[in-house]
Write a structure and sequence with these properties.
2 copies of one chain form a homodimer.
Chain A lengths: L7 E3 H8 L3 H9 L6 E2 L5 E4 L1 H14 L4 H8 L10 H34 L12 H8 L18
Antiparallel strand pairs in A: 1-3, 2-3
The first copy, chain A, binds a DNA duplex (30 and 30 nucleotides) through helix 2.
DNA sequence: TGATAACCTCGTCAATAGTTGAGGTTCGAT
DNA sequence: ATCGAACCTCAACTATTGACGAGGTTATCA
């Protein structure tokens, strides 16, 4: 193969090698998920480490994590070089915690539904699944308290 | 209590009792998630069974399931009366399958990440997490194959 | 030195899940 | 009968996550 894998990538190369569209590369950069520099002629250039970042981003998205939060998590990973073991460790720790959290909540949901089948919860009057919202509802109009329980991220 | 729980509800009552905004009730109706009838004067009326539907909708959303799919699942539940045991059973079976599916995929993801920490996958050349996308990317541009693996719902 | 492939910005569009507001109608209580 | 609360429709706007095209510039190959 004449083409040696370049350490510096153009947008097009990033797109091709990461499997995302060029527009998406732009988009991710605009959102601060990835970062590179520009040539004299204003064209984007990226360190190959960006490929890993993008891989991580896609993984995270598969888990349903919004870009904004992915960005926060990625803040620990360097843009300009392939992460070393420590970078990576720190990152994955947080990451796994996020996933665990999601999984836990999903499991709860599933098990609660299961118990609802068994408990004849058709009356729905004291169903553990329904109540969190209903209590709120009964209490009056008030501001919409969306159950975004997942937004409980304070700094580390 | 002077107010007996009405069997027929106005939008406002639905909103108050279910904890969602009136505009959201409208929205759900427009999307076919709930259903009612109109008075002479064109105002919405709902059977109280709608409260259960809405409760279910919110539960499903907590699990990250898009409204379109919730609607499909809810198609098995009657709009006009509180579901009986059979309705409910049928529904929850499908439901649980969906949740299980999501949980499974999330677990896979988590475990793969864990294994990546251990396996020194920093080289990232054969990381099981990265490859699905990368293989695609390497093969050429082609149409964007978004990994919405969750869209694999054919009819029952 | 061109040609043309790849790149640039910026604006628009799509789908999801709603919220808000304008302008007008109906309901229910007095 | 009248008043105000609740309701109606419709359009526009929010945010997220991008895709896509127009019009113009840069890089690279021969």
């Amino acid at each position: 193969m004449p083409k040696k894998p370049a350490a510096v990538l153009t947008v097009g190369e990033v797109a091709r090698r990461s499997g995302i569209a060029v527009s998406t590369v732009h988009f991710y950069e605009a959102r601060g998920l990835i970062e590179g520099w520009r040539t004299e002629g204003n064209q984007r250039r990226y360190h190959r480490a960006v490929l890993r970042r993008i891989a991580i981003i896609r993984i995270a998205q598969r888990a349903g994590i919004p870009l904004a939060r992915i960005r926060e998590a990625l803040a620990d990973l360097p843009h300009d070089h392939v992460p070393n073991a420590r970078d990576w460790q720190k990152f994955t720790d947080e990451w796994r915690a996020m996933l665990d959290d999601r999984i836990t909540r999903l499991l709860q949901l599933r098990d609660q539904i299961a118990s609802c089948i068994g408990c004849g919860c058709l009356s729905l009057e004291d169903c553990p699944l329904r109540n969190p919202d209903d209590r709120l509802g009964e209490k009056g109009p008030g501001p919409r308290r969306l159950e975004l329980a997942e937004n409980h991220h304070e700094g580390t």
